[in-house]
Amino acid sequence: MAVRFLPPLLMLLAAVAAYFLFPYNLAFLTRIVIMVVLVLSLDLVLGFAGIATLGQAAMYGAGAYAAGLFAIHVWADPVAGLVAGALAGAVLAALSGAVLMRTQGLTLIMLTIAVAQICAEIANRARGVTGGADGLRGIRPGKVLGVWEFDFIGITGYWYALAVMLLVFAVLAILGRSPFGLSLRGIHESPARMEAIGVSVYRRRLAAYTLGGGIAGIAGALTAQITQLVSLETFSFSLSAEALIMLILGGTGRLYGAVLGTVIFMAVHHVAAANDPFNWLFVIGALVLAVVFFLPAGIAHLPTSLKRLSKGGRHAGS
Amino acid sequence: MADKVLELKNVTAGYGPTHVLRGITLSVAPGERLAVIGRNGAGKTTLLSTIMGLTRMHGGSVHYGGREIDRLAPYRRNALGLGLVPQTRDIFPSLTVEENLLSCLRGDASLEEAYALFPRLKERRKNGGTQLSGGEQQMLSIARTLMTRPDVLLLDEPLEGLAPVICEQLMAVFEELAKDGSRAVVLVEQHAEAALAFATRAALMANGAIVHEGPAEALRRDAELLHRHVGVAMSA
Prior knowledge:
The complex is a heterodimer.
Chain A: H1 2-21, H2 26-48, H3 56-73, H4 78-100, H5 105-125, H6 127-130, H7 155-177, H8 179-189, H9 191-196, H10 201-227, H11 237-250, H12 256-275, H13 280-294, H14 302-310
Chain B: E1 6-14, E2 21-28, E3 33-38, H1 44-52, E4 56-64, E5 67-68, H2 74-80, E6 82-85, H3 97-102, H4 111-117, H5 119-123, H6 134-146, E7 152-156, H7 164-179, E8 184-189, H8 192-198, E9 201-206, E10 209-215, H9 216-221, H10 223-229
Parallel strand pairs in B: 3-8, 3-9, 6-7, 7-8
Antiparallel strand pairs in B: 1-2, 1-4, 4-5, 9-10
Pfam families (chain B): ABC_tran
Domain ABC transporter (chain B): 6-232
Keywords (chain B): Amino-acid transport, ATP-binding, Nucleotide-binding, Transport
């Protein structure tokens, strides 16, 4: 039992340590935490349910704009804004998923990209509402739970994002062990078998996609509230693709992989881009290649692979 | 319709445009034990897959509880009361024994029931799906289907490739499952002797058609017929 609580405890300790070790980098740390939420949503969709997508940014962007508009026009309360973001992400995922979940493979991937591009174009055209290419400005979120005000150093933002991330992580960890989560993994491995033992593959995939959309919406809402700006970039293809690379780096279907992959990708990106603003992608590419070759199951699989290697296994990643 | 829970009328089916089953008419009564025997390639697996909705039907109809179910998706057929244990077992490899069972948990079904039927699974409940022996995988596959509470259990060659002692254990379990008469069991087998000893009625398949149907005991004694269609001689 103690072993089960060790990884989440380590995660919390690392987050607290990062706060004290890098007090002048809180904005960057907060960005990592928000990105973890987005990658966790992708892990539910891709890692658990096996839905291949390159358009998770669609729901992220929808959540960001929804939370921003909600704060400006309705209510500045951040938690209510999170709910608005989650709803926007979930509704978009449910509507698009109703069609997308009937497709598979390359068709599915292309359609997910198309949905994100359509969303970006709508946001671009609806200048009066979204601010178009200038972005949505004037978001002034209220105090978190009526107590903590957002400060310019980013202390409140960091702890607020961290709390939301841990909550999302806990919900997904519980969900992963529930019959629903297990059936998603079953669908990933053998959809025909799951269907024959009484599970509607389409409905389960749609439910997972909708839930994943809601979580991506929460990530978008966090960005809108903390940076107080929403740009068209929130719908960008590169965001979806980077989230996918982070997940593959860390390892799919295990939640910790999403956390680890995001932290490593963003830290390497940060350092490499600071040292060489032109060739930093080379470092990221080399990192991805190394992981895919030596740890095909992701960095989160490293302890298991090392254990297997020490027992004389031939291939660490297999 | 209470005398027939499952009924196939002149069913023609196969994979894609290929016809494997040719004009199958067959019925199963509630609580009945039916054996379907035949050689490799006779269409036995396709028959069960067609009942479950996993193949393409070209003609005829399938009825469950008096209702036509031709157009129902497999999961809806399962919800009505059909449960298939596939020949390939299809254990989810990344899930443990317990997780495999939980993945399709429904209603008032419980893990304890499954473990009472197969104590071996309880011992191995934390093991991964790929770490099981063939017999254990078969037990898990049967237990997993039972978690969906089927009224008609379709078993596709459950004894294939298993040691004789495991086969005996499984046959004892099938006896237990069919004992109270609340659940019909359709046992598809190449092991004619074991299947006919278990069943009350039997159907003999060859080339995608049913070539004989009647009481299992009578077929068991008809060595000539069995030899012609299954290629085995009965020991008793």
